Amino acid sequence: MASLKDMRVRIASTKATQKITKAMQMVAASKLRRAQNAAEAARPYAEKMDTVISNIASAAAGSPNASPLLVGTGKDQVHLLLVCTGERGLSGAFNSAIVRLARERAFALMNQGKEVKFFCVGRKGYEQLRRIFDKQIVETVELRSVRQLGFVNAEDIAKKVLARFDAGEFDVCTLFYSRFRSVIAQIPTAQQVIPLAVEAAAGNGNAAPSYEYEPEEDEILNQLLPRNLAVQIFRALLENNASFYGAQMTAMDNATRNAGEMIRKQTLIYNRTRQAMITKELIEIISGAEAV
Amino acid sequence: MATFHFDLVSPEKLAFSGEVDQVDIPGVEGDFGVLAGHAPVVATIRPGILTVTAAGGTRQKIIVLGGLAEVSEKGLTVLADVATSIEELDRAQFTDMIAGMEAQLTEKEGSELDKAIERLDHFKSIQSQLNTTAMH
Questions:
Q1: How many helical (H) and strand (E) elements, i.e. helices and strands, does chain B have?
Q2: Local structure of residue B38 (DSSP, 8 states)
Q3: Measured between alpha carbons, how far is A146 from A22 in angstroms, rounded to an integer?
Q4: Using one digit for the tens of pLDDT, what is the confidence trace for A247-263?
Q5: CA of B99, closest CA in chain A: separation in Å?
Q6: Domain residue spans in chain B?
Q7: Chain B: residue nearest A208 by CA?
């Protein structure tokens, strides 16, 4: 049985761990608020972008020289999975959930005889995917050194994806990230970004105002589509960020509670042992006195 | 004077939202002003200075670095790549940006070079406008 000193040391170390997890929880909570605000601030832009694009796209989709970003390359043989995960762990199942979704999709596609490539954003996803799909990972981007997630980060990623698309390296691109529903619910999501899935505005297609375009529609669309990719990636990164802190907060809350439980149990054993020792010593003294 | 609703959004935030009298937009094919009741237009914008005349007649200048403007019956929406009001602009940083773009020119060629030069010209014109209006 461990000596009293050993027990004291163990209790102290559990307490130190609890302090760390508690601090991490509070840091995550405050960062979560900021991340959530950023995600909400980005929403109007993305929504407006959607409306404008679907307005123009429904008009342009029929034309023969429509951008391949909109109508696709005409086949779906090679798939690029753009997997966005966090840079850090200690956030419960956050990273694994995204990776699992991507992995399942990859296996499903490979069973259909398609080719799958990966583009990893975030270190954690790369580390997990590397174990199975090492050869298929074509590029990784780490956002480790980025303090405040800016639109430029998303633009950089979009540029890399577009360069590969222009080089004919893939036909379909799907974005994987975690949608932020609430602090305790983050939903891993797959979203097809190339070719763009535009909701058919068939119902109110005629009601849409007939815009004048300056410059021509095609030109605007060709500018807008690559930009839209960046916007979608930016939104995914922000949602991911908020989800990450949400997941971390929950995970750290659990850890703090578990540590508390452990401390309680250890203290109980410690006190029992201590009392048993005192009783034993007393008995020894008393029986010693009686013997005299 | 009749007013209309104007939203200026950048990917990072909603930079302006409210009722305004007039907005002057630096379009790719030339500047244009938008008043209430303007015909529906979708136009791309170049890097330049956007002037908002609010309902009270006060003017506000905002620097936008490219994007898209949409006029519909609901009002005007500008999707700007970057939107900074003149007061908030860090001029030293802006000058650095121009210097950086000039330095990068040598690495580019063909149509990319043309685009880069065009963009640089837009930036320089913003800068000269800033310098001339600095006294006011």
A1: 2, 9
A2: P
A3: 25
A4: 999 999 999 999 999 99
A5: 19
A6: 4-85, 91-133
A7: B72
Please give the Cα distance from A241 to A244 (Å, whole number): 5
- Two tokens at A32? 């979560």
Rg (CA), chain B: 16
Give the N- to C-terminal CA distance of chain B in Å, as an integer.
26
Q: How far is CA A38 from the centre of its chain?
A: 15
Task: For residue A146, give the 3-state DSSP assignment.
Answer: coil
Q: Tell me if A244 sits within 8 A of A94, measured CB to CB.
A: yes
Q: Work out the minimum CA distance from A220 to partner chain B, whole angstroms.
A: 7
Helices (DSSP H) in chain A: which residue ranges? 4-60, 68-71, 94-111, 123-133, 151-166, 217-291
Contacts of A116 (CB under 8 A, 6+ apart): A78, A79, A81, A106, A109, A110, A133, A136
Residue A177's closest CA among A118, A245, A91, A241?
A241
Domains of chain A: 42-250 (3.40.1380.10)
| CA A157 to each of CA A82, A124, A166, B131: distance values in angstroms, whole numbers, following the listed order | 10, 17, 14, 35
Q: Write down the pTM of the prediction.
A: 0.81
CA–chain centroid gap for A124, Å, is: 10
Q: Is A92 helix (H, G, I), strand (E, B) or coil?
A: coil
Looking at residues A81-95, what average pLDDT do you find? 90
Instruction: Confirm if A83 and A176 have CB atoms less than 8 A apart.
Output: yes
* Contact between residue A189 and residue A177 where contact means Cβ atoms under 8 Å apart: yes
pLDDT > 60? residue A207: no
Q: Which among A53, A157, A212, A214 is the top mutation candidate for probing chain B, defined by the most B β-carbons within 10 Å of its own β-carbon?
A: A214
**B19-74: per-residue pLDDT in tens?**
999 999 998 888 889 998 888 888 888 888 899 998 778 888 888 888 889 888 88
- The structure tokens listed for A20 are 């760390």
Options 3.30.565.10, 3.40.640.10, 3.30.460.80, 2.60.15.10; which CATH number does B4-85 get? 2.60.15.10
Cα dist from A240 to A116, A121, A247, whole Å: 23, 11, 10
Q: Given an 8 Å threshold on Cβ–Cβ distance, is A214 in contact with B27?
A: yes
Cα→Cα distances A211→A202, A207, A224, B42, Å: 17, 12, 16, 6
**Interacting residues of B3 by C-beta distance below 8 A, sequence separation 6+:** B19, B20, B21, B36, B55
- Closest-CA distance, B121 to chain A, in angstroms, reads 20
Average pLDDT over residues A151-169: 89
